[in-house]
Design goal:
The chain is α+β, with helices and mostly antiparallel strands. Helix content is 51%, strand content 13%. The structure holds a DNA duplex.
Length: 415
DNA sequence: GGCCGTTAA
DNA sequence: TAGTTTAACGGCC
């Protein structure tokens, strides 16, 4: 019914359960129609549809025996997973509820009973739970949000404030796991196994205490999930939000029962495109992934297929993110210029500033770079990157700018 | 090594 | 009228 709407609201976020997505999509698309952004989305959509058809066609060419063999291979992979499965850790995913919005509501009580969001007319970072009932969410432009909710109050970002609160929260987290891994200002993974052992308290008690301390210190609520791995912990926290926690017992049976009915979109790493591809194979839940493992193994590359199998079993360890810069691979900054900017000298001026910013970030971390890349976006939202290696490692702003300038001029030269 | 697409917050 | 920013990863050539 909603299929002909080019732009689709992602309503998988906490607080958006049971929304009339079709009506919301109608408003979003009505507002967007005729814009370059809409045209771009339409193109993307077509491309995904093409991909789905291509994939289905490919699958159809495989003989039955091939599918059976492929399934047997994945079955074996699944069995090996079960053998190596590790139930020894207590992993916690903790996430501040509607973080930026909650900070603003805390500091201005008049906002507390009103739909509000943090960001600008062009882009929102977060919305409070009242606004979510209107379909207003993060990553939505403010002007679209106002169509969905005319009473919406939009508060500008106070980034430094959120950073300070984040530091307060992290100081609490490190009591429980000094090596916790922060994903962003409002989200972190902890391994509390050692703390469970040394304190003699239960994981649930510990997380209660952690959240209480956060509230005491910041007047803000957090939600948390506790499970045998980060993948499950994150979903546990997500489904019980806000101001709540969920513990998933560490048994094969409990985890299977939890993971099987999950819609694929709840999986970290499955976004809009992969969701469409999987739906094209009639895969809606994590259980479907396992049941269709033979086809998945034929439709995707081995790395992706195996990842999906691990997901379907609820056994996915890794998350990336860091509390220091040890694993960092790139540093960048970017700026969107006013629509229709054509003045090359102006672009170069901006690029020089960006180069200096990157250089100063590098210096402050005592790092140097070997590769310089630029990213461009045209008025019709076409993104391109151009990159080059520099001869010597550098953290010098003008050296970086020189490389970037060459790339930009080269790009503008292309026809 | 260079570029694209996907994802996430 | 208007649609961000930063970072990582896999696929492909």
């Amino acid at each position: 019914q909603d299929q002909n709407n080019v732009i689709q609201l992602n309503a998988t976020k906490a607080g958006m359960e049971g929304l009339d997505v079709a009506s919301i999509n109608a408003i979003i698309n009505e507002t967007s129609k005729g814009s370059k952004f809409y045209e771009h989305k339409a193109k993307q959509r077509k491309e995904i549809e093409r991909k789905i058809e291509e994939m289905k066609k490919k699958i159809g060419t495989y003989p039955e025996a091939t599918v059976r063999l492929s399934e047997a291979e994945m079955t074996k992979y699944g069995e090996q997973l079960e053998i190596s499965r590790n139930y020894s850790r207590f992993i916690v995913h903790i996430d501040m509820d509607a973080f930026y919005a909650s900070v603003e509501m805390r500091d201005d009580p008049s906002l507390r009973d009103k739909p509000m969001a943090v960001g600008s007319n062009s882009m929102l970072s977060t919305s409070n739970y009242i606004a979510r009932r209107f379909g207003v969410r993060a990553a939505m432009p403010g002007f679209i949000a106002r169509k969905l909710c005319p009473q919406l109050i939009i508060v500008p970002c106070n980034f430094d404030k959120y950073k300070a609160v984040s530091r307060q929260v992290q100081n609490i987290l490190k009591i429980y796991d000094p090596d916790f891994s922060s994903i962003s200002l409002d989200e972190a993974y902890l391994d509390i196994t050692n703390y469970v052992e040394t304190s003699g308290k239960s994981p649930e008690e510990i997380v209660q205490e952690m959240r209480a301390k956060i509230f005491e210190e910041t007047q803000l609520t957090a939600s948390a999930g506790i499970a045998s791995n980060g993948f499950l912990a994150k979903i546990c926290g997500d489904i019980c939000k806000p101001n709540n926690q969920h513990y998933l017992p560490k048994t094969k049976e409990d985890e299977a029962k939890f993971v099987k009915p999950l819609p694929i979109r709840k999986v970290n790493g499955i976004g809009g495109v992969t969701e469409q591809l999987l739906l094209g194979l009639d895969i809606h839940t994590c259980e479907d992934i396992w049941n269709k493992r033979g086809i998945i193994n034929l439709a995707f590359r081995p790395i992706t297929a195996q990842w999906l199998i691990r997901v379907s079993k609820g056994y996915q360890e890794s998350w990336y993110g860091h509390d220091d810069d040890s694993g960092r691979k790139s540093i960048s900054c970017e700026r969107t210029l006013e629509r229709g900017t054509t003045d090359v000298n102006y672009m170069l001026k901006i690029m020089e500033k960006l180069s200096e910013e990157v250089a100063s970030e590098l210096k402050s971390r005592e790092m140097r770079c070997k590769s310089v890349a630029i990213k461009t976006k045209t008025v019709d939202f076409v993104l391109k990157t151009r990159s080059t290696s520099v001869t010597n490692f550098t953290s010098n702003g003008s050296e970086i700018f020189n490389a970037a300038k060459g790339l930009l001029l080269g790009y503008l030269q292309e026809e």
